[in-house]
Every structure is written in C-alpha cells, then in structure tokens.
Design a protein that fits this description.
Elements: H1 6-32, H2 37-48, H3 56-63, H4 67-79, E1 83-87, E2 95-99, H5 101-113, H6 115-137
Antiparallel strand pairs: 1-2
Helix pairs in contact: 1-5, 1-6, 2-5, 3-4
Amino acid sequence: MSTPDRDELRAAATFRSELRRFLRRSERQAAKVGLTPQRYDLLLQLKAAPGGQSTVTELAGLLQLRQTAVTELVKRAQEAGLVQRRRSDSDGRVYLLGLTEEGDRRVMQVFHALRAERVAFARAFEELSARFRATSVD
C-alpha cells in the first residue's frame, strides 16, 4: 500500500468536513420541524420511493440500518402521525409504508430549507472528486 501524499490526505479531510457540515445543517433543519435525523431520513426515503411507498426491508437497505431498527423507527413515526402502513394487495404478508399528510408536510419543509446546502455540498463534492481523481492518477 502506497503512502498517500499531503494533497490526497487534505482532500479526504476536506470531504469529511464538508460531509459533517452538511449533516449538521440537515440535523438543525429537521429539529426545527420536530424530526430527528433518522426520522427525516426515513420520511425522505418514503417521499422518494416509487409510488411514495416502501417496505421495512427496502428501507433497511436504503438507510443502512438493521431491519429491527427500521421497524422501531417506523413504529415511532407511525405513532407520531407521520407514517401510515397498509397491507399489500398482492402479498398479505407485506406492509407498505407511506407518508401521512403531516409526514409529507414536515419532510418537504426540511427538504426545501436544505436546497442551498445540497447545491453547495454537490459543488464541493464535485471539486473534491476532481482532486481525488487527480491524485489517484499520479
């Protein structure tokens, strides 16, 4: 394994810093509407899901959490009136999850509030990607 040069290390450190900055801003915006970061991630995945519906199994993969953790997260979001579940018409063993009106309202508030941060993070990510590519070619 080769020793990374200072530019590559600096690019990695900058990437981690930008990522933490974006996540921190996301956490603050979510808190303003009464959401935890994990609950915001759950609602965002449901909002983005095909047809606005998903399953616990699908969400576990997307959120990179164990299925039991997602089940608990969904249960609490349902109790808070943010998520609804219903049995699948095609497979009675499966529950489909979707947003309630309140869940949709809150996730979209955070989503819109983070628009500028997403653009800034994407720009920083593109710049860092170019720097990583340049150092990996050398």
